[in-house]
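User: I'm preparing a small set of examples for a lab meeting where we compare how different chains pack in three dimensions. I only have the primary sequence for this one, and I'd like the structure in token form so I can line it up with the others. Please keep the answer compact; I'll paste it straight into my notes.
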Amino acid sequence: MKRPERVAVIGVGILGASVGWNLSRHGVKVVFIDAGQPGEGVTNWSFSWVNASNKTARKSYFDLNVAGMAAYRELARTIGSDSWWYPSGHLRWAEEPAAEAKLLETASLLASWDYRVEVFTGAEVRHHFEPALTMPGEVPVLFYPDEAWVHGRHLVGRLVGQAVASGAEYRSGTEVCDIATGADGSIRTVALSDGGCLDVDIVVNAAGPGASHVAGLIARRLPMRREPGAVARIDCAQVPVNRAMHAPHIEIRPDGDASVVLHSREIDALIDTDEDPAELARLLHESARHVVPELGNSRIAQIRVVDRPIPADGFPSVGAVPSVPGYYEAVSHSGITLGPVIGQLLASEILSGKRDEMLADFRPERFSQ
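Assistant: Understood. Below is the structure token output for the 369-residue chain.
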């Protein structure tokens, strides 16, 4: 297979940064293209939880996410873990009996798949892990010790910085407005909204919520869900929690030394009712205070509603599109967990032409033209 001469990576969130970094370190000329700055889109407005415990719908998807977790540990050793990697585990509990039974059933399934999970009481969690929490002393709490959270914007900045140091280009503040193909149907050029035109032989569509539009530039249909999510950042004089957690009605994690990130699927469901983002933030803050009373002294710093990049069937779309030689997709929800492993697998496919079996269920061609 001919070695690619120049690769355009469209979208510089965690997936695009990971693919580009992996290609760059193998000597490929990479051009990153993004309307914004590295990692400041969906990557920066994600709960950023690295896990496979929430990925049990299909065993192949679970396995891909486990590989994603392993790829993070390898990446931390390779580029250094400071400022972005927080492998402190994850806590989860429920308040309704039916929800509690479902969590324990899932934990049993995960244990049968050799995924580490421990069960504590609420009292033990407060004593050993998180003294700031309020929860019933007898409630069962699942602890997943191998899970983590990631500061996505810091990680993307480091990956792109290293790639640029290795010779990659970065085009910010511009969008792809056309992708041209040659007589044989293969990728030839990418036209930019700032008037630039790049000669490339590979395009990687990692455009997140905009991936369907980019696919349309080569007359490909990539169906996507519309699933908006609201994430708030809360400023704290002292962060009262030590790890990511799913409490009843609210997800909470640290976000560095002085802030906490909040998310809730229940509150996401209010987005289409024209709820004001400031009201969404207030509801998130209120829910969080019930779990961590110390957050009552904090203030809402930012709230953002973003569309999640989810292909129509809920699973990733990763790999070559055979009908357009040189065009590849890296589009997925759970991009934080999957970024490093998709980066490795897709870069390898671009360089060698070999399709990894781990991606067999997630090939782009399952979406017909």
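A couple of notes for your slides: The first helix runs from residue 14 to 24. The first strand starts at residue 6 and ends at 10.

User: Perfect, thanks.
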